What we know:
By secondary structure, this protein is of the alpha/beta class. Helix content is 41%, strand content 11%. It has a five-stranded mixed β-sheet. This is Transposase. It holds the Pfam family DDE_Tnp_IS66.
Amino acid sequence: MPGSEGVSLERLLARLEELESRVAVLEVRNVELERENAELRGENTELKRRLAQNSRNSSKPPSADGLEQSPPPRSLRRKTGRKPGKQPGAQGFSLALVEDPDEIIDHTPGCCRGCGTGLGTAVAVGVVRRQVTDIAPAVATVTEHRLHKRRCGCGQVTTAEAPAGIAAPASYGPNLRTWVVYALVFQHIPVARVVELVTDLSGARPSTGWVCQVLRDTAAALVQVEKLIRTLLTAAHILHVDETGAKVTGARWWLHVAATETLTSYHLGRSRGRAAIDEFGVLDGFAGTLVHDAWASYNGYAGCEHALCGAHIARELVAASETHPGQRWPAQALDALFGLNAAAHDAASSTGR
Length: 353
C-alpha cells in the first residue's frame, strides 16, 4: 500500500519518543525510591538499636529493663589473667587478735587429762588465747529524769532544768535517732522497714511519723553543712554528676547527684533538665572538669571542661559491637579503656591514694 512505510516509521518514532519519556520518568522515580529505601533501612536499623538497648549497652537504668530484655548478669571487663579474690599486695581485712580486749574470762583445767589428778595447785605453764568479737544486745533502756521542785523562803517554786534535748514527758534518745537516720539515709531502708528493724533489734516501738520527723529534724540541723558541701563541690577540680528517676508519692521525680571522692550532695527535683540542675546550685560557677553521661543539659554549662563517664563510654562500645558484629574496633577500644582504668587504679594504689 503506497505510503504505508512512512506512516509506520512515524508511528514507531512517536512510540519511541513516548517510551523514552516514560523511561526518564521511571528513572527519576527509581532514584526517589532508592533514597526512600535507604532512609527506611536507616530508620529500621535505628529502631532495632533502640529496641535492643538495655542497662548494659546504653544509659538506661537496670529498672528500665523488661523481663524479656534483662541482660545476662556478667561483667563488661575482659579476662585479666588474675586469680579471683584478694590480689597480692592489696590491703587485707582478716580478723586478728587485739592486745587490749574489753573483757577477759579465764578458763582453767580441773584435772589432768593423763592421770586424772586435780590441778588446783598445779604450776601454770602458759595460756592459749581465743578472742570472740561480738556486739552487745541492742536492748532499749528507759532513763527517767526527775526534775525536782524546791520552794524558796520567799514562796517562789523553782523546778530543775531538764538536760538539753529532753522536753517532752516521754521521748526517744539520741542513740535511737542515730540508728534511724543511718538506716534511712545511708542504707536507704524504707520508713516502714526501719520501724520494724528498730522494733526487732531493740524492743522500742517508734511510729512511722516519728521516724519521718527525725529525718526532718536532722535535715534542718544540717542546712549549713549542706551549703558548705555544695560550695566545696563547686570549687572542686573534678566533679561527677548524674541523675536518676525516683517515685515520690506516686509521681515521677528526679534525684540529682554531684560528687567528688570525699563529698556528695543530692537534690530532688521535678524535672531532669536544666531547671532542676540550676535549682541544685552546684554547677553555677563551676570551672573544673565535669564528668557526666553527655546529657544535653550538662553540655549547656560552658564555663567548665567536659569529660565523658567511663562506664557510659563502655556501654556505647558494647552497643557498637552489637550493632556492628563484624567490626573489631569496639572490642579493641573497650580493652584499651579498661586497661587505662586498671593502670590508673594501680598507680593510685602504689602511691597510697
